[in-house]
Every structure is written in structure tokens, then in C-alpha cells.
Design goal:
Blueprint: H1 2-23, H2 27-42, H3 45-48, E1 52-54, H4 66-74, E2 78-86, E3 91-96, E4 104-106, E5 112-114, E6 129-132, E7 136-137, E8 143-144, H5 150-155, E9 164-167, E10 188-190, E11 195-197, E12 202-204
Parallel strand pairs: 1-2, 1-6, 6-9, 9-10
Antiparallel strand pairs: 2-3, 4-5, 7-8, 10-11, 11-12
Length: 206
């Protein structure tokens, strides 16, 4: 139990530090960096050939993904976004979104999610590629979220072999992250400067 508490404390410390750095990014930089990240994602074969894409609606100081989400919709692929299905245990459902304005509402957590009045829950195991948010990530693909475990539970339900791409600003990439047994790793990291294939930290697109 003591080791678990120490691990959670370390995660909390890293989470606070990285969120402070991300929040401190100048709006002009965040906008330009988000555009660069969207361009890199749009060039990824896993994204451009996917029939179904699970992504996220930007929250707070996260990477602005809306232009890329609109591209996915415009090319006729299925865009799916998560919504909180229940809080105990923390669990996410997913639903298709065809219009970023009409199909989304702001949840009680302040996050845009598929409108409960319009959404039809979909199967996670039919997703071709995932664009995952994160607070921090390292070159081995270890991902740190906001602490509730929502995404780890969601990623665990994917079809085996489904590529998971962490979307982050460069300031969110850290040297190493502590890892719990239930944490799910990512296969690739895309920032405004580079693309990491994990594990091993191979870098391309610099």
C-alpha cells in the first residue's frame, strides 16, 4: 500500500508540474503548435486510412484538434468522441459525431461530449485508430492522464493491435513516468516538433 501511495504521489507531482507548463503556454504559441500537430496527424497513414477514428474534444489548454476532427468528418470517415457513461467506476462510452457544433454539449465536467439527446453508443472494438489526450507522456509510451482512470479503461477495450496516438505539446513529453499495472501505453506520440514511435523512442518527422 505504501508503494502504491508513493507512486500516486509521484504521478500527482508530475501532473501538477506539466499542467502548469501547459497552461503557461502563450495563446499564440498554443494556436500555432496545435496547427502543426494537426498537420502531422493529417499526414499519418493510420489516420488518413482509418474508417473510424476515436479522438477527443479539446478541453482547457489541451492541443486544439477541431480542424483535424473536421477533416475526418469531411472525408466521410466515422469520427467518435467519448462521453462519461458513469462515474463509479469511472467509465467512458463513445458515440459518432457528424457535426462538431450540433452534436456536442458541454458536460458537467466542462468537457464537450456527444449530446445525450442525440448520441447512439458505439462499440469501442470497431475503432481503427485512437487520438488520445494526455497530461504527460514519455518515449516508452507511458501515458499520464488526469487521474481518474477513464482513458485506461477505455483503451483496454480496444481491438488488439489498434494504434493509439498520444497528442501532446512538446512540453508535455517527460524523461520518464511512473507506471501502474492498469496503465495503458500508447504506440506513437505526436507533438508540434516530432513524431515518436514507441517503445524505443524512435523519432521521425523532425
Amino acid at each position: 500500500m505504501r508503494e502504491v501511495n508513493l507512486l500516486q504521489d509521484e504521478k500527482g507531482r508530475i501532473r501538477r508540474e506539466v499542467l502548469a507548463r501547459r497552461d503557461a503556454l502563450a495563446p499564440e504559441y498554443r494556436e500555432a503548435a496545435s496547427a502543426a500537430i494537426c498537420a502531422r496527424l493529417a499526414a499519418c497513414a493510420d489516420v488518413t486510412t482509418a474508417r473510424t477514428v476515436l479522438a477527443f474534444a479539446t478541453f482547457g489548454s489541451e492541443v486544439g484538434l477541431d480542424p483535424l476532427l473536421q477533416q475526418v468528418i469531411d472525408r466521410g470517415a466515422g469520427l467518435f468522441l467519448p462521453f462519461v457513461e458513469r462515474f463509479t467506476p469511472p467509465d467512458l462510452g463513445i458515440a459518432r459525431v457528424k457535426d462538431l457544433q450540433r452534436d456536442l454539449v458541454v458536460s458537467r465536467m466542462g468537457i464537450r461530449e456527444p449530446d445525450p439527446a442525440r448520441r447512439r453508443p458505439a462499440r469501442v472494438d470497431r475503432i481503427d485508430v485512437v487520438l488520445a489526450p494526455c497530461v504527460a507522456v514519455d518515449a516508452l509510451g507511458r501515458r499520464l492522464g488526469y487521474g481518474a482512470g477513464f482513458y485506461d479503461r477505455l483503451l483496454a477495450r480496444l481491438r488488439p493491435g489498434t494504434p493509439v496516438i498520444a497528442v501532446a505539446f512538446e512540453t508535455q513529453v517527460v524523461a520518464a513516468l511512473p507506471e501502474s499495472t492498469h496503465d495503458m501505453r500508447v504506440d506513437r506520440i505526436v507533438t508540434e516538433h516530432r513524431v515518436f514511435e514507441t517503445p524505443g523512442g524512435r523519432v521521425s518527422g523532425v
